[in-house]
Design a protein that fits this description.
- There is one protein chain.
- The chain is of the alpha+beta class and 70 residues long.
- It is built from three helices and two strands, in the order αββαα.
- It has helices at 5-12, 34-40, 60-68; strands spanning 16-18, 24-26.
- A two-stranded antiparallel ribbon has the order 1-2.
- Strand 1 and strand 2 form a beta hairpin.
- The chain starts with a helix and ends with a helix.
């Protein structure tokens, strides 16, 4: 997935995740950082751009593993 540096770092730090509908969600642990939350709220609930070829979509099992490691 192609992400901005901010969003990529938040994804790697498990502050955000992608749900089963390929929408970005915010981990509740981020609520204490208002500035970061304000930046990420722009993306919350938005579906990520997916390739037309469904075989190239992010693997839902990997995304689920990422979510569950929070």
């Amino acid at each position: 997935m192609c992400l901005s540096k901010l969003v990529d770092k938040c994804f790697e730090d498990k502050l955000i995740y992608i749900d089963n509908e390929y929408k970005m969600q915010i981990n509740s642990s981020i609520q204490s950082d208002k500035k970061l939350l304000d930046q990420l709220k722009l993306y919350e609930g938005k579906k990520i751009s997916l390739p037309k070829n469904k075989d190239m979509h992010p693997n839902k099992d990997y995304l689920r593993t990422h979510r569950n490691e929070q």
